[in-house]
Amino acid sequence: MDPRVNDIVVRCMCDMGERYGLDLGGGPMRETLLFGESGLLDSVGLVSLIVAVEQEIENDLGVSIVLADERAMSQKHSPFRSIGALADYAASLVSAEQ
Amino acid sequence: MHTDFLLEVFRANPDKPAVVWRDKPYSYQWLLETTAAAEAALVAQGVPRGAVVSIEADFSPTSVAMLLALIERSCVAVPLTDTVREKKKEFREIGEIETIVTIDANDQWHFEHTGVQAKHAHFATLRERNHPGLILYSSGSTGASKAALHDLSFLLDKFKVQRQSKCTLTFLLFDHIGGINTLLYTLSNAGCVVTVEDRSAESVCRAIDRHKVEILPTSPTFLNLLLLSEAYKRHDLSSLELVTYGTEVMPESTLKRFCALFPNIRTQQTYGLSEVGILRSKSKSSDSLWVKVGGEDYQTRIADGMLEIKAKSAMLGYLNAPSPFTADGWFITGDAVEVDGEYIRILGRKSELINVGGAKVFPAEVENVLQQMDGVEDVAVTGERNAITGHMIKARVKLTTSETLPEFRKRMNEFCKDRLERFKIPQKVELVEESMHGSRFKKMRREGPAA
């Protein structure tokens, strides 16, 4: 997995934490829950995070991906449940595009 | 016959300037003579009464005379300006144009017969009444263009009441209901029509200064550009008494800034549509977006949060679309409004409403806030499909700063935090280089080449 994708997701989540005053404990970690039970974000917050990640991936890595689509919504385990899950899912789309 | 009331005004004011074109005034006497010459030319060219004739021109002394001649001869006039050049062929076909009159750069007319015979049932209605007609095309900024056919004798009726004679700049175009309304209002009161060749802030301010223009009917987008360009600092606008604005939602921030800068200029919101004409309107105050619309020829009502209008002089119908009127004759405007007693506030087109996870957002509300940020020159907000919330808010922003996207997004989020509910803050931002208005100075929210 491309480690830069993980860095981007963490960076974007730091911004979200600042923006919404979220309690990220010691900072965003792979285990940090995003959406769903005990998740830190509501649907609008999740959309903001996802779009920020998409745009920064395009900006930094030159790869255009769509994280929120039917495919993501129909995964057995939601790719949006945690930072780790989102980073892994984004990285898999990036490597498929490269 | 149809233009008698206008010609009477012209005869009473022979020496007054009727039209200023390329900085040169043309008198009412000149307009009288040229209108008669245009009528003679129509006869000589074999254009029968009741013919459907496009008049392809911008505002000029001769285009005004030709329009009046067409009205007098009970023709259907179809003004088309160069801003619709890509659609001209389509518009001529929809309009069943029988004769094309082009007014060239030297203000000379040229005739071309198309060989088409206009057979639409609405034309037959007009011919039976021996009334002139007018076709106006919707701009297509919210979908396919529709051709609205009016019985012009009804539209003319409201100009038979004498009002104030003013010097007015024809900012709105020759093929727009607002432009035609400005022209007829000004001529029927022996005012002066000041034309401009381009509608940049610089040219408009120069013309106001030079010709002591008193009324400027324009659009919110233009007022925003005027403020940004600071063209008003280079020209004397003290002759200006009234600025009217319509055609799109006015951002509150733009109106407030304009009123603060020009405390002596009255501003008034107008409300009109190609299909029903221009309603009389009264703003609650100069810097208020609340407005009373109606007048003697119009009734209004609100149904399902949308404004509906019943007009004495509504169009006969579309040439290329089913009737948009309810069974009892009301026109559904598609404009969502808020109501406070007699006043309404226009929120935006219902069709532009964005549904973010069940919450409703009007683009204008978000644009109004973003436009207040330093360094934001222009902004257009739309909805974009999103698998999680159905739609999300997307803002395309033109900046005067050299910020990167992440830098701007951060500043925007900070700025909007206390000004917009969270779901209204754009989730997606795109930085663009080009302007987001068309040649009609109206915001183009759809992406693609501006019309």
Outline of this structure?
Chain A is mostly helical and 98 residues long.
Structural description of this entry:
The complex is a heterodimer of chains A (98) and B (451). Chain A is mainly alpha-helical and 98 residues long. Chain A has one domain (3-97): Non-ribosomal Peptide Synthetase Peptidyl Carrier Protein, Chain A. In chain A, 57% of the residues lie in helices and 0% in strands. Chain A has helices at 3-20, 43-61, 70-73, 83-97. Chain B has 451 residues and is an alpha/beta fold. Chain B folds into two domains: 1-349, Rossmann fold (3-Layer(aba) Sandwich), CATH 3.40.50; 353-431, ANL, C-terminal domain (GMP Synthetase, Chain A, domain 3). Chain B has helices at 4-12, 28-44, 61-72, 88-94, 121-129, 152-157, 177-188, 201-211, 220-229, 252-261, 363-370, 405-416; strands spanning 17-21, 24-27, 52-56, 76-80, 99-103, 109-113, 133-137, 147-151, 167-169, 192-194, 215-218, 242-245, 266-269, 271-273, 277-283, 291-294, 298-303, 306-311, 317-318, 331-340, 343-349, 354-356, 359-361, 376-386, 390-399, 428-431. A seven-stranded mixed sheet of chain B has the order 6-5-3-4-7-8-19, with helices on both faces. The interface between A and B is medium-sized, with 19 and 21 residues.
Can you tag this structure with a few keywords?
heterodimer; A: 98 residues; mainly alpha; Non-ribosomal Peptide Synthetase Peptidyl Carrier Protein, Chain A; 4 helices; B: 451 residues; alpha/beta; Rossmann fold; GMP Synthetase, Chain A, domain 3; 2 domains; seven-stranded mixed β-sheet; four-stranded mixed β-sheet; 12 helices; 26 strands; 27% helix; globular
